[in-house]
Every structure is written in C-alpha cells, then in structure tokens.
Write a structure and sequence with these properties.
By secondary structure, the chain is of the alpha/beta class. The protein is globular.
Length: 383
C-alpha cells in the first residue's frame, strides 16, 4: 500500500520530549514501512523520521508549538498539500479530528475532508466530550463516508452515530521499558502541568500519605499562569518535587523506581499513554474513574480505580498488594506496537478493497446504463 500519514505540526516526529500523537505516528509509520508498505509522513519541520520505505514531508518550517499564532496557517498549508497529492496514495491517514479540517472561506464553512476522493481515515486523539463539537459532527452528514478511529471505547461512545468507526488502542515499545522490582519510596506524577490532569489532587495525595511526590512534565504557555499561581507555591523541594520535562530515557528511570503512578484526571482522558508506560515498567497505577481508565486499569490487578481523593490515598497505602508482573503482562498482551500496527494495516487494506469494489460496481452500473442508451439508436437487424 501507498500510505500518507498526516500528523499535527506542533511537535516533531518523533517528539524530543512530550508528544503523545507524534510518538504514536512514529511507531505506526515505522511499523508499516517495516511490513513493506510505502509510507509518507506529513509532519513538522525539524522531524527526523526516515528510513526504508519512509518519506518525510515537512509541512512547516519548524514545530509550531512555540508559534501558536501561526499554527492554523500551517495546518491549512499542510492539508492543502495533502489534497493536491492525494492521487499518489492508496489511503490518507489523518491524525486530526475532522473539526481541524474545517475552514472558513469567504464566510462559508468548508471541511476539506469533503474534497478527498482517495479513501481517508481520521484518528481522534483528543477528547470528544465537547457538546458544540458533537453537534457539529451530528449535522455534518458529508463526513459519514469516511472512517474514524478512536483510541478508546469511552472516547468513541459520544460519536457512535458515525456509521464507520473502530477503536484501536495506542501502544508502547515494550522493549524500551524495563521492570524494576525494588521500588523507591516516592509517588510519580507524569504529564502536562494542567488543571484537568489533576496535579493539585496529586499533591494533596502526597500530603495525606506523607509519601514524597515527584512531578515531571511540561508547562504549556496556556498553563503557565495556573502553574505560577496554583502549583508553584506547593512545591517545597522535599515532599513535593518538580523536576521539569523529561525525555524518554529519563522518564523510564523515574517511572520504574516509583511506588506507583498517580493519575487523578479531572476530564475524559481519551487514552492516557503514561498509564501504559508505567505499567510496562511494572509500576502500578492509581487513577480516578474517568475517560479510558477502566479500559486500561483492572482494579486490584495492575492498579486501583478510585472515585475520590480519600479513596486514592487509601489505595496508595495498599499498593504493595499489586503484583508487578501483572502490570507488565497487561501491557504485553494488549498494548504492543505490533498489535497496533497490525490493526491499522488490516483496517487500511479493508477500506482500500471496499473502495475498489465500490468503484467497480459504479463502473458496471454506468456501463449497463450506457449500453442500454446506445441500443436505442441501433436499428433492428434482420437476417
């Protein structure tokens, strides 16, 4: 197959530090190329993805994460570039939800997905729990011809009215995560320093249990004020430590030695890759019952699912009851790169075959109508 994979231009592929979507795209593109498919990745300038059967198409001069005022312009540039080249590919895989493809032209809202004639698949990576977005998708009937991938059942359920959907869980490169059975006496919070991620709640858990908390993660410009006013004053360097944003190697070192990962999310998390990364290190997860958590955490087996801060504090106190091998096994069975790549490969093949069959039926019906029309003008032959 000739496959175009389109990814946001805010972060490079692969990401240098934070970048969940870009990490998944890197794994997927390399996996498909390894299986012999020809893969072109439309990505941010400065990306390093390349190799056999892999082609990098830089769609912006640099990652726009630090140039947010330019991001929308480069998104449009990227999508128009993909559209102009669509006939070079058998299938287009966009790692944008369809709303990102909607633009206003002379006062008229247009969704660029409507102009794709080559089969297109869009993967939703962000939350679907936004009422105005749901309303848009309900009214945008032209989108129904496309296939949409969701990264959890919880994420998909709000848009279950789409006729063509599939859930494909994200993955991790399990070999990059090692299990450490001797845990140190600290809790771990890894993620964006944002209100919805539950950073304040994680700090309260540490205060209640008097177990040190290590916080690692990026601070987006939009969350800087929240950090300065709400979080910074709670960091004392002893019980609560903030160590900044970490790369993949540093992240694994912190995760594998932690007593457990705290995941006190306050929103409908679409997937939560950090939970899988912790489990791959043999580190249990204690999480609020939100978003995809019940699909990843099996209560009492690889962690605990709770509903309140007090319940989370109590769960932390009994975390030693969790079998570390069970944590690792839960990832090996369900969240490997091979599994994810295989599911996308099978989906792409099915969509391409269905599209070819549909075109053949349309051509057959057109030929029948054309032959019937021509016969009207052929005089009856007498022998």
């Amino acid at each position: 197959m000739k496959i175009a994979i389109v990814t946001p231009v805010m972060v490079t592929v692969p990401p240098k530090k934070y970048g969940g979507i870009e990490l998944i795209v890197d794994e997927l593109a390399r996996g498909l190329a390894k299986r012999g498919h020809d893969v072109s990745v439309f990505c941010a300038g400065g990306s390093k993805i390349d190799g056999k059967n892999l082609h990098r198409v830089e769609s912006s001069p640099y990652p726009t994460g630090r140039h947010l005022e330019e991001n929308r312009l480069w998104e449009l540039h990227q999508l128009l570039s993909v559209l102009s080249r669509q006939n070079e590919f058998d299938i287009i895989h966009l790692n944008y939800e369809p709303l990102v493809c909607r633009f206003n032209a002379d006062g008229i809202n247009t969704n660029l997905l409507d102009f794709f004639t080559v089969p297109a698949v869009s993967t939703f990576h962000n939350t679907t729990a936004i009422p105005k977005n749901i309303k848009y998708y309900q009214d945008a009937h032209s989108l129904n011809k496309h296939t949409f991938v969701f990264v959890s059942e919880n994420q998909r359920k709000r848009l279950s009215f789409f006729p063509r959907t599939k859930v494909i869980y994200n993955s991790v490169k399990i070999e990059q995560f090692s299990v450490e059975r001797k845990k140190d006496d600290y809790l771990m919070f890894l993620g964006r320093i944002a209100p919805v991620k539950g950073i304040i709640e994680a700090i309260v858990i540490a205060q209640k249990t008097q177990i040190p908390l290590i916080i690692a993660g990026k601070i987006d410009p939009t969350d800087r004020e929240f950090y300065e006013k709400k979080v910074k004053r709670l960091i004392d360097g002893k019980l609560i430590r903030y160590v900044g944003e970490k790369n993949s190697v540093e992240k694994v070192k912190l995760l594998k030695r932690a007593k457990c990962l705290l995941f006190p999310i306050l929103w409908e998390e679409p997937f939560g890759l950090v939970m899988v990364e912790a489990l791959a290190c043999g580190t249990p997860v204690v999480a609020f019952r939100r978003g995809s958590v019940p699909e990843i955490i099996k209560n009492g087996v690889n962690g605990f699912i709770v509903n309140t801060i007090d319940e989370m504090a109590e769960a932390v106190k009994k975390i030693e009851k969790i079998d570390l091998s069970a944590c690792r096994e839960s990832v090996e069975k369900r969240f490997s790169v091979e599994r994810m790549v295989g599911e996308y490969e099978n989906l792409f093949k099915k969509i391409i075959n269905d599209s070819k069959n549909k075109k053949e039926v349309v051509k057959y019906n057109h030929d029948r109508r054309e032959n019937k029309r021509k016969r009207k003008f052929i005089p009856a032959l007498k022998f």
